[in-house]
Amino acid sequence: MGFFQNRAFNFMYVHGALQSFANYGGEAFAFVYLLKAGIPTPIVLLAVGMLFGSRVFFRLAVLPFALRFGLRNALIFGILLEASTYPILSQITRVDGLLLIYLATWALSSSFYWTCYHAYVTLIGDSEHRGKQASAIEFVGMVMGIFAPLTTGALLTYFSPLIAFGVVGLAMAGSAIPVLFMPEVEVEKHASVDAQTRRKAWVIMFADGLRAGSFHFTWLIALFITLGNSFAGFGGTLSLAGFIGALIGLFTGKMVDVGQGQRALQLGFLALTVAILARALGYPLVFTAVLANAVAVMMWPVYATATNARIYNLARQSACPLRYHVVAEGGWDLGTALSCSVSALLIYMGFSFFGPLIFALFGCGLGYYVLSKTSQAA
Known about the structure:
By secondary structure, the chain is mainly alpha-helical.
């Protein structure tokens, strides 16, 4: 019953469904679309790194905005600004000013969206049901991960980029509607997060950023190239095994809530390790790349549920969840920027994708070390 007994949080599932459609149908295609437009792989990876690196500065505006207009309204602002990036993306054909406008707009919008989203989920969620709620969001996302890539892949194959990314933008904008029915929450005006908590939050998310730049962004580019730059094939591959992965994530969420959070954390990082190795070893051939992606999709919810539940509870225990996530997301940005830059450098130097993909193990090891030292009550 922990999935649905919080009425306010139930609207978050609706928002999560629409946002996940935009994520799996839009963000997942964003950088491979740039590849298709003729921008070289190292430049695309470097652009991703620059985007996330710049978010450290954009994120400084989140707290003053939320204090002035409220956290829920700051989240809505981030949602609508994020939706506006997709029509811009559809018009990019080369490295020029429009690419810079897109990167800057997405950096600003995602800084607002993800910081406010994590803080809002922290505040309206229930600590005693944190695992179930985190896993339910992952379940919704994975279900959308089945349909959204197929939709965008087909639209990009048979229609114009403006139509394809326009549909994604509308889904993202529509995700603001359920947020309108959710309560405003207060942000403490004069709270401060202690230095030790800030350091731990930063390192936890820096480690996950090292994982993300390699495991997520570099992998999407490697997979797209292996599949012959086919939008339809790329979308179909991303859709495989999503439902099975979501069910596994729900089981993990139940483990967290019955006091087996440390066990769930161990399983989560073991699953992530398996997924990293599968992608690093499987990317060169179409069959093995598709199989590796299926394995990773099944493993991902185990990792995401265990870690997100722990991080949300750590944020809830801090003096101010919003300030906590400003620091934490800043760590994630720098970790992702570093990982993407390493991938860009290695590819530019003529290395295969194995090195950039296996680099995610550094983030995996650091993340487990830091999170395993936190209280199991978190």
